[in-house]
Amino acid sequence: MFYRESGDFKKTYQDDSQTFPIKFDRRRYYVVMAIAFLVLPMFMTDYFANAMMIPFLVWAIAALGLNILVGYCGQLSLGTGGFMAVGAYATYKLMTSFPGMDMFSVVLLSGFVTALVGMIFGLPSLRIKGFYLAVATLAAQFFLVWLLNKVPWFYNYSASGQITAPERSIFGIIITGPHASPITGYLFCLILAVGLAWVARNLTRGRLGRSWMAIRDMDIAAEIIGVNPLMAKLSAFAVSSFFVGVAGSLFFSVYLGAAEVTEAFSINVSFAVLFMVIIGGLGSIFGSFVGAAFMVLMPVLLKNILVGGFGWPTDLAAHLEFIIVGALIVIFLIVEPHGLAQMARVLKEKLRLWPFPH
Amino acid sequence: MSIQNTTADQQHNPAVLLDLKHISLSFGGVKAITDISFDIYEGEVRAIIGPNGAGKSSMLNVINGFYHPQQGEIWFDGKHRQAMKPYEIAYQGIARTFQNIALFKGMSVLDNIMTGRFTHMSKNLFWQALWKGPAEQEEIANRELVEHVIDFLEIQAIRKTPVGRLPYGLQKRVELGRALAAQPKLLLLDEPMAGMNVEEKEDMCRFILDVNDTFGTTIALIEHDMGVVMDISDRVVVLDYGRKIGDGNPDDVRNDQTVIDAYLGVSH
Q1: Domain span including residue A213
Q2: B148 in contact with A, Cβ within 8 Å
Q3: In this structure, are residues A212 and A68 in contact, taking their beta carbons and an 8 Å threshold?
Q4: Residue A241: pLDDT above 60?
Q5: CATH number of the domain that A129 lies in?
Q6: Facing A224 at nearest CB: one of B90, B111, B129
Q7: How many CA atoms lie within 13 A of B248 on its CB side?
């Protein structure tokens, strides 16, 4: 009854093309933002920030990036882990080479470095499609991890082969390093996640986004309409890798603090992000967040319920957790193959008519 | 150069928009098109007809750059056209629709038609990422034009619907809309009425004639429905087995013996 678009007339095209055309949606969005920025930091425990919110935001950014490539441009990629590693190592090199640089610049520059690398590995997409492209991007995954592990310059010749984030700050607020508060880390990730989601939304609703979707849906027709496939695919790879690079950068500097490339950025990472995108919903920004939430928060939640609530032994809970999360993935995909975002969309359509569906 | 040549042509012809000279196209040993020449005048409706496998669609694919003929010259808008990629040709002002619908299934009707404006939009990635400002202005200016196309094709009610959900006839109309949004000089229609019922065909004919009248768009169309072809086209070119067997106004073509033979067969 409250979820209505009737009577809400749009008088300009500007109003008509806004992100949340329904008033209720718009208000809900502001409320969520207010809670995320103002309420949560006040009541958040360090555990909640560290174990749930920071990884959720980091993975959401990675999922957003992969969704641009897979969901919007239709180019299947399994190189996410490798690109995240590039972002992380770029961050490490920037932090150690330019100690005075603020964290925003470091993270965004790491994104740009990753975008460049992503474009290079995107070149095969001009010739190959679908599963074959996935295999080609798999090469990126293995090559990049191998390279970052093999060349000592990337980890500053440290004996352990690990990279460790030194202490860095913005305007005197410590963001990384052992003395950083998880809550500032959370806010830092939140600002980037919201900003990047906004950028993703802008790109996908405009000329560039339409060229991506055109390539995804019907590449021949796209070319006839004037879309240069080279530009469309490479820009998708660049933008996607930028997001993934930022995620890798945050994953290393804010979340982990120290990382070893073969462990932190293995092929599992690529698959995890791909699952997030598929479960959340291909071609949906909201879906990227939901998918990340599902894959990050669900295990933590289950663990808390099983171990904290029922008092079961940790190892049993850990195994059950895998079983339950796996089963849930299968169930969700059977019920709604287009992901949780599509579920939300269907719910919305139902809600519009509720309680008088006829 | 031989630009002199075309001005000479234009003196005794109405302005020639597209001139195909001795086009031959083969795939390996298969000859799809053999030495075909014809021209399309500015502002006319030009039909390309012929039995199945005559090379009609190959001809359209040559015109918009999917295939590069082994021999022959293409003159567009008074200039000799070098081998180009299809997307470059789109920038020259050639748009088309496809025999089997080639819409962007995951996008709404509005987005599909907006994609048709691609060549007329130019704001770079930076401005688009910001959205507010130049990118939004450009978007709105083009949206206004797209809304005209939507009004023209009478599809206002479905503008936000994903095209995958639409019935066949409407999808064809949306595809026409997408091509029209590009404001092409030359519009190629590959069987715009295939699989339609009588009313839908009538609607489509009306749209084609209206496009031709109100926007002055030159149209080249492939069609199998002879009634439609004879009614709406100004001139007809007939192909058979990759060769041109007839060219002229509908009445001449209809009474041409070789054309009748090609369609009805000859007793041996």
Answers
A1: 22-267
A2: no
A3: yes
A4: yes
A5: 1.10.3470
A6: B90
A7: 9
CA end-to-end span of chain A = 14
User: Given an 8 Å threshold on Cβ–Cβ distance, is A203 in contact with B143?
Assistant: no
Look up residue B29 and give its amino acid: G
pLDDT score of B59? 93
Q: Lowest-confidence range among A2-11, A89-98, A124-133, A318-327?
A: A2-11
CB A189, CB A54: distance < 8 Å? yes
CA B58 to chain centre: 13
Residue A192 backbone dihedrals phi, psi, to 5 degrees: -65, -40
Q: Tell me the per-residue pLDDT of A150-201, one tens digit each, with 9 for 90 and over.
A: 999 999 998 888 999 998 888 888 888 888 889 999 999 999 999 999 999 9
Please tell me the least confidently modeled range out of A75-79, A93-97, A322-326: A322-326
Which pLDDT band, with edges at 50, 70 and 90, does A145 fall under? very high
pLDDT in tens, B149-170: 999 999 999 999 999 999 998 9
Find the chain A residues whose C-beta atoms sit closer than 8 A to any C-beta of B.
12-14, 17, 199, 202-203, 205-208, 210-211, 213-214, 216-218, 220-229, 235, 239, 283
Any A CB within 8 A of B119 CB: yes
Q: How far is CA A189 from CA A176, A194, A299, B44, B175, in A?
A: 11, 9, 21, 60, 43
Q: Considering the entire predicted model, what is its pTM?
A: 0.91
Alpha helices in chain B (DSSP H): 3-12, 56-63, 86-92, 109-115, 125-130, 134-153, 168-181, 198-210, 226-232, 250-254, 257-264
Considering only CB atoms, B107 lies closest to which of A199, A217, A227, namely A217
Domain segments of chain B: what residues? 1-93+184-268, 104-183
The answer to whether A224 contacts B64, with C-beta atoms less than 8 Å apart, is yes
Partner residue opposite B140 with nearest CB, options A14, A208, A211: A14
- Of B88, B91, B105, B115, which to mutate for an interface test with A (greatest number of A Cβ within 10 Å)? B115
Tally the domains of chain A. 1
The class that CATH gives domain B1-93+184-268 is alpha beta
The answer to whether residue A317 is domain-embedded is no
pLDDT at B1 (0 to 100): 35
Q: Looking at chain B, which residue has its C-alpha nearest residue A12?
A: B140
* C-beta atoms of A203 and B130 within 8 A: no
Q: What is the pLDDT of residues A92-113, one digit of tens each?
A: 999 999 998 889 999 999 999 9
ipTM: 0.89
Residue A233 in domain: yes
B105/A contact by beta carbon, under 8 A: yes
3-class SS of residue A112: helix
- In the stretch 189-228 of chain B, residues with CB closer than 8 A to chain A read none
pLDDT of residue A1: 52
**Residue ranges, chain B, pLDDT below 50:** 1-11
Pick from A64, A70, A225, A242 the residue to mutate for testing the B interface (most B CBs within 10 Å).
Answer: A225
Handedness of CA A169, A170, A172, A174 (dihedral sign): negative
Contacts of residue A229 in chain B, CB cutoff 8 Å? 87
